[in-house]
TrEMBL record:
This is Membrane protease subunit, stomatin/prohibitin. Residues 49-213 form the Band domain. One of its GO terms (biological process) is proteolysis. Coiled coil: none annotated. CDD domains: SPFH_like_u2.
Length: 280
């Protein structure tokens, strides 16, 4: 079912007509014209049942004896079909903070994750008639989508290939938004934004995963140090040969390269040894 505009008239005019009918009916009663006066008062009361006040960013879904007649979105005082039923629907932007969920990522590691979903109703007819309690529908579908998206990515990408939950939170949030829009369009709800608010390894594996992250960080740092040390050694050997400071055979060159690498890569400060004798 799609939303449509309800039939309405100016509410202030309706109030004036209602008061006129009421005053006229009472006046006729005093003149002993009970039937005509009663009819005018009854018409006025029926008319007043259709008067509705719509606040800004609020709407009313109108049904008349079980039939959907339309939605009033414009704020103000309006007259709609008398004796109709009215269901209020908020058009404001709202937040939904999901609970912290425990989910397995694509590698089977248990992680804790939570998200905030920003949404608003754009089709009041779908929100009221196509789903049962659209607020709860949004909550359940949001948590389901969060679980599904989380299970498609690893928590951390140690191979540096593809997306990960920790390293690509913007991309993951984009995928979550797309999936939520697909799931919630049946309820007439538009997703404005979806963001991860909590992401961590589950308690039972947090310690082991922290050690793994530290080990990978140490390996990455060592790789950078070794690459830098190789460049420095190569530059030193080329400079010595270019400036002809000393002539080294292959054996002595290998020994010098080894000593330079040890001095540069070592965690501790190098202790120099001065050779006072012959080089050979």
């Amino acid at each position: 079912m799609k939303e449509k505009k309800a039939w309405v008239l100016n509410g202030y005019l309706a109030v004036v007509i209602f008061l006129a009918l009421l005053v006229g009916g009472i006046a006729l009663l005093f003149q002993m014209q009970f039937i005509l006066g009663g009819v005018l008062i009854l018409i006025g009361l029926l008319l007043s049942s259709g008067i509705v006040v719509v606040q800004p960013n609020k709407s009313y879904v109108i049904t008349f004896f079980g039939s959907y007649t339309g939605t009033i979105r414009e704020p103000g005082l309006w007259l709609t079909i008398p004796l109709s039923m009215r269901k209020s629907v908020s058009l404001r932007v709202r937040n939904f903070n999901s609970k912290t969920l425990k989910v397995n990522d694509i590698e089977g590691n248990p992680i804790e994750i939570a998200a905030v979903i920003v949404f608003k109703v754009v089709d009041t007819a779908k929100a009221i008639f196509d789903v049962d309690k659209y607020e709860q529908f949004v909550e359940i579908q949001s948590e389901t989508a969060l679980r599904h998206v989380t299970s498609r990515y690893p928590y951390d990408n140690f191979q540096k290939e593809g997306y990960s939950l920790r390293g690509n939170s913007e991309e993951v949030a984009g995928q979550l938004t797309i999936e939520l829009e697909e799931r919630l369009k049946v309820a007439g709800v538009q997703i404005i934004e979806a963001r991860l608010t909590h992401l961590a390894y589950a308690t039972e594996i947090a310690g082991a995963m922290l050690q793994r992250q530290q080990a990978n960080a140490i390996l990455d740092a060592r790789q950078i140090i070794v690459e830098g040390a190789m460049g420095m050694v190569q530059m030193a050997v080329e400079r010595l040969e270019k400036d002809k400071v000393v002539q080294l055979d292959e054996e002595r060159k290998a020994a010098m390269i080894n000593n330079l690498l040890v001095a540069i890569v070592s965690d501790r400060s190098a202790q120099p040894v001065i050779n006072t004798g012959s080089l050979y």
